[in-house]
Amino acid sequence: MSNNSEVSRLSPDERREQILRVASARFAEQGVDAVSVRDVAQEAGVTRALVYHYFPGKDSLLDAVLRREAEAVLAATAPLPGRSARENLERALGAYLDHFSASSGQLRDLYAPHASAPALVHELAAANHLVQVERILSYLDLADTALSRLAVGGWLGFVEEVARESGGGATVPREQVLLLCLRALSVVTGAPLALGTDEEDTTEPSTKESSS
Q1: Are 97 and 163 contacting, i.e. CB atoms less than 8 angstroms apart?
Q2: Structure confidence at residue 169 (pLDDT)
Q3: What is the C-alpha separation between 162 and 97, in angstroms, rounded?
Q4: What is the pTM of this model?
Q5: How many angstroms separate the first and last alpha carbons of the chain?
Q6: Sign of torsion, CA 172 175 181 186?
Q7: Are the C-beta atoms of 199 and 169 separated by less than 8 Å?
Q8: What is the pLDDT of residues 75-111, one digit of tens each?
Q9: What is the DSSP letter of 35?
Q10: 125 contacts 66 by C-beta, under 8 angstroms
Q11: CA dist., res. 152 & res. 38, Å (int)
């Protein structure tokens, strides 16, 4: 009763967003195939007809959820002013891994798309990939060349595979996963990020070379 009362007070934009939040959570938890429009309507406290008013069918609802999720990932991984390159990279990596581990099915495909994923998933993933490449070039103050884009793009593919493996029951601590990714980025770009041992992960490569 209270849920219906709350819904009745929502504006059209708020109501649409509420339906998307419910659908996104259900799709992420149960997978797209296991969730029906009826399920979404019941949890949102609205009728199926109202869901269909905003989204003509389940496919259009899924498309809207995917676009919303892609925007959320870009926002969560955006750099913060005043932070160092490493701090922003660690924050972005952590946010990406969190979103990946909380997703399933076609939502997970946004972060590590398979060849059989829908065209929209590949479109959104490619757009996200481009933004992340440009952010990393900026973080590391790298020249925007075909070679540097190839290096960073390849690293993003490595991060996707790390997300799959670490999200599939692996027991590697999050701190070590982040450090592994930072070291890999340093190797492929030449940027001085976390090339030390676990105990010396904040030591710059130039410092260690001069001390040897």
Answers
A1: yes
A2: 58
A3: 9
A4: 0.76
A5: 71
A6: negative
A7: no
A8: 999 999 999 888 999 999 999 988 888 777 667 777 7
A9: -
A10: no
A11: 43
